[in-house]
Design goal:
By secondary structure, this protein is an alpha/beta fold. It has two domains: 19-44 and 164-319, Rossmann fold, CATH 3.40.50; 48-148, Rossmann fold (3-Layer(aba) Sandwich). It has helices spanning 4-17, 48-61, 77-89, 103-112, 129-142, 155-172, 187-199, 250-264, 270-283, 312-319; strands at residues 23-26, 32-37, 69-73, 92-97, 117-118, 146-148, 178-182, 204-210, 244-248, 293-298. A hairpin with a 5-residue loop joins β1 and β2. The longest helix is centred in the middle third of the chain and has 18 residues, at 155-172. The termini are far apart. The chain binds pyridoxal-5'-phosphate (PLP).
Amino acid sequence: MTSRKELLERLAIGDRIIRETPVIQLQDDHICLHAKLEFLNGIGSIKDRPAFWILKRGIERGDIVPDTTIIESSSGNFACALAAFCRLLKLNFIPVLDPVVPPTYEAYLRANCKHVVKVDECDETGGYLKTRLRMVRSLMSDIPGSYWTNQYENPDGMDAHYNLTGAEILRALPHVEYVFLGVSSAGTVSGVSRVLKEHNPDVQIIAVDAEGSVIFGQKPKKRYISGIGSSITPPLLKHAMIDDVVIVPESDTLTACYELLTRHNLFVGGSTGTVYSAIQSYFRGKRFKRPPTVLFLCSDRGAAYLHNVYNPEWVASHLMIAAPTPVAS
Ligand SMILES: Cc1ncc(COP(=O)(O)O)c(C=O)c1O
């Protein structure tokens, strides 16, 4: 078994693996629009940061020791990042998934974790989160010495975005005026909003959620695109400093994903389309003396969404709209 000394040495490797992601400027007629490319994190999403930070803090405090089993409920990205860092740290990890998990993520997790648990029963909101959380609690009581990273409640997840994502935004774009952030566990919006508001209380933090998610008090409705939204109000949300909220229907998410691909050459996951759509609707019809500086995060890549967002047949049958057609030769 790994010794504590080896665990700390491996943690130091993790510290070097987490790198600054680039901020690029996109063409836009009305605003000075920037995207931070979180899909360039090593495992491919914004979730690399909280996954590493939660494990790091747990190890430093002694809550996670070499024979701890890590358990987490995740719709994909967070589990993938945890699987990679747990492998690096030689910790056992059991992800709890549901049927909305993109097939590529499930294949990756099955290849990297000895045990994968998948629930199949919807909760009363039509989502799976509550069922997954019940499964986590049951595993915790069955496995002695297990540790639930608990991304919806763990302040270390928020601190990851305060210390890493938020600090990087300040270095890259210290005069940013609007930051649009998708919400699921609320770790990103709470950590980033706190550090940016400390630097400039006037910066506008716009939270973005999917129609059918209950985070901001909407009625629950079946959702198909993973990554953004939740069927509970995440406890971390109380730490967030939010100026405005934009709710986006899944059909608009889709149109926005295609626009990001065809206009900006960015092949991104559904949640990034949701946020991009929110930016377009938020500034539509608004007039400014000079274009405001706006930032959003490209949280993950589009490859995991080829079966739904980028599949015209799926789009037609699930969202009842026609997907944008390819260019004819
Ligand atoms: C692709 C993607 N975008 C956005 C989010 C939202 O981030 P947070 O959980 O920090 O609220 C997530 C969370 O899983 C995600 O996977």
